[in-house]
Amino acid sequence: MTEGDVMWQRKWVLGNWKMNGRLATIRTLLTELLPQIHDAQQVQLGVAVPTVYLQEVTECLSGSRIWSGAEDVSQFANDGAYTGETSAAMLADVGARFALVGHSERRQYFNEGNAVLRQKYQHCLSERVLPILCIGETLAEREADQDEAVVAQQLAILADLSLDSVVVAYEPVWAIGTGQVATVAQIAAMHAFIYSQILSLCGAGVKIRVLYGGSVNAQNAADILAVAHVDGALVGGASLQPDSFAAIIQAAQTAE
Ligand code: PGA
Fold first, then answer.
1. DSSP type of residue 90
2. Which helix (DSSP H) or strand (DSSP E) does residue 15 occupy?
3. How deeply is 192 buried, as exposed, middle or buried, from its count of CB atoms within 10 A (0-12, 13-18, 19+)?
4. Per-residue confidence band for 5, with pLDDT thresholds at 50, 70 and 90
5. What is the CA angle 153-82-70, rounded to 5?
6. Pocket of ligand 1 contains residue 249 by CB under 6 Å
7. Catalytic annotation on 112?
8. Total domain count for the chain?
9. Stretch (H or E) spanning 108
10. Enclosing domain of residue 184
11. Is 215 close to ligand 1, i.e. is its CB under 6 Å away?
12. Which of 71, 105, 171, 229 is the catalytic position?
């Protein structure tokens, strides 16, 4: 099996720094993290970082097993008059291996919906920047028993794209940054549902990783990563501390 095949068998742990950090703190974080993750050979690793620091992080991580990635990407593909935007081609140019697409904070604060997100997803594919599609329901949607319907609607952007691989991060909005984690039963049910949706949208041959996100930390990571159909974690707050991020990576390394 090639390295390219093996990564679809591994657990993935991706950090999402959001709008945090400065040059000095980023360098310290990475310098303290790297020596702690030498053993984590069985885990696919990455950090999504503020665009302005992407090149710096890519340089700091060169030669390591950690991918650098972006937290967002423009809906526009070509260079032009799009003030403030960063295209998928630019992300690729500075070494980004992946980009988050449709994080709930983008959906909430920037009104991103399926039409825009499908464009972003496709531009990433064109530039060989791996899109990580973030999905998840709000508390009101879960309480109204709409969680599966919402997730199915968010996954619909994958239809008719002829994909051979898909990476999704399931992040219930009510679990992000709140300390409130979905139960193992809730995670198991939703991840199985997401798998079935991806298979019916993309066909049986598609390679799939479904990550869980929302208040993953050093204490709960092992339990979450042991749930069926949980292929890894997308980690916000706990990825900003080298010790807690390293502990989550270690939990992924030893997870079945
Ligand atoms: P959190 O964020 O781990 O701080 O809850 C996760 C995310 O938003 O990706």
1. H
2. strand 11-16
3. middle
4. confident
5. 55
6. no
7. no
8. 1
9. helix 104-110
10. 3-254
11. yes
12. 171
103 is catalytic: yes
How close is the Cα of 123 to the center of ligand 1, in Å? 25
pLDDT per residue as tens digits for the range 19-32: 999 999 999 999 99
Report how far residue 172's alpha carbon sits from residue 183's, in angstroms, rounded to the nearest whole number.
Answer: 11
Q: What is the mean pLDDT of residues 156-182?
A: 94
Residue with tokens 């040059």: 23
- In angstroms, the CA 239 to CA 256 distance is 22
Other CB atoms within a 10 A radius of the CB of residue 254 amount to 14
pLDDT of 218 reads 97
Which atom from ligand 1 is nearest to the alpha carbon of 105? 8
pTM of the predicted model, to two decimals? 0.97
Interatomic CA distance for residues 66 and 60, integer angstroms = 10
Q: Which two tokens stand for residue 178?
A: 């709140």
**What is the dihedral sign for C-alpha 116, 120, 125, 130?**
negative
CB 43 within 8 A of CB 253: yes
> Rounded mean pLDDT of 94-107?
98
Question: What's the gap in Å between 234 CA and the centre of ligand 1?
Answer: 7
The token duo for 132 is: 């990580």
Altogether, the residues listed in the chain come to a count of: 256
Q: Give the CATH number of the domain where residue 226 resides.
A: 3.20.20.70
